[in-house]
Write a structure and sequence with these properties.
CATH superfamily: Uracil-DNA glycosylase-like domain
CATH architecture: 3-Layer(aba) Sandwich
Distance between the termini: 48 Å
Mean pLDDT: 93
Structural class: alpha/beta
Bound molecules: iron/sulfur cluster
Largest sheet: 5 strands, mixed
CATH topology: Uracil-DNA Glycosylase, subunit E
Number of helices: 9
Helix content: 40-55%
Number of strands: 5
Order of helices and strands: HEHHHEHEHHEEHH
Strand content: 5-15%
CATH class: Alpha Beta
Number of domains: 1
Length: about 220
Amino acid sequence: MSQGSTAQVRLDAHVRALRRCTTCPQMHRPAVSGGAVMSKILLVGQAPGDKEPTLGRPFAWTAGRTLFRWFEESCGMSEASFRASIYMAAVCRCFPGKKATGGDRVPSREEIANCAAWLDAECNLLEPELIIPVGKLAIEQFLPCQSLADVIGRQQRIRRAAREVDLIPLPHPSGASTWPRMEPGKTLLGRALQRIAAHPAMAAIKKKSVAPRRPRRSLTVT
Ligand code: SF4
């Protein structure tokens, strides 16, 4: 068996085990996974909402539409090709449930620590060259983040699971957040997406894709 197919078998087993995970009693299962995509780019979301467990994939609802539009406009990558070529992880893979006051519950420290073991394993299996954390909770798993304006639009070299990797954070695409639609967020988001589009790991993915799509001329952040 080649090295590549061995890695794929290990990643398949990892995703099967992840989907069966029952470690956190407060979480609503099943865990949501984007599938065993061998990739040098790892996107790390926060936690699925209530729709994703039923639909069976991360970023399956309104925030996902915005996220995939960002990538279409900046990298010329459709949602289908994004899902087929980038590994989609999250801080927590299960829906945390709703707060009594409305909105999704923020995962506890213990739940985040539990799920970090899956992320560390993915870093070891995939040896990513680029990690894209999406939203403050995801960014904070890699860097201190007092303010989004301090980290969005920048590329940093970080250590995770005993290896060095580039990190380019994005804001959360949820419609509830106005940050990406107002200055300085709009400009910083555009800068972050340009950095992702120019990263060698993204260039390698686009080179491999059968029919690369040309990016549109301008990025519309609404
Ligand atoms: S949040 Fe993560 S660690 Fe907790 S049950 Fe879900 S998959 Fe397992």
